[in-house]
Amino acid sequence: MTGDLQFSWELSGSGWATCRIADSSSERRDFVSYCTDALADLLHGVAGLYGASTVQRVSFDLEPAEVRWVLRSRGANVDIAIYRFPDMHTSWDLPDEEGTLSWSSTQPRRTLGHVVMDAAQAVLRLHGEDGYREKWVQHPFPVAALQDLRRLHLRDDECQREQCQVNPAS
Fold this sequence. Notes:
Blueprint: E1 6-13, E2 16-22, E3 27-33, H1 38-48, E4 55-61, E5 66-74, E6 77-85, H2 88-91, E7 100-108, H3 109-136, H4 143-157, H5 162-165
Antiparallel strand pairs: 1-2, 2-3, 4-5, 5-6, 6-7
Helix pairs in contact: 1-3, 1-4, 3-4
């Protein structure tokens, strides 16, 4: 499937976020802990797809499980594979294939960039930087990571959507 991607990131309690990704075939929902700077890591991972590296990995701590997103550039598309490991303390250095593939999709990089930026921007609009820090506790809102992804997306995907032109702090 391509072009039908949905993504949301909602702060769901002190130090917790609900992460949801879906396409027309399936959906994945996780409750992510603040033990890692998860939203910043995801923004950096998607931004990394605009560089020379063709593979980006992002791990979310579910306490105790790990969910690892493996993003592989395939020209203008990205293969998204999400693996689940039972214990983050023992899985950190394991190969991806040691986990259970729990969701996958192929999407245009432009679409992935859009939905991740839109979700991060929605969190910032709803909570503001201070409210985000209060709820996420361990880490500030990743303004610089969102700005970097937006800059790369505008440059390489030649995006003209109004949402992509907006300053993330607004």
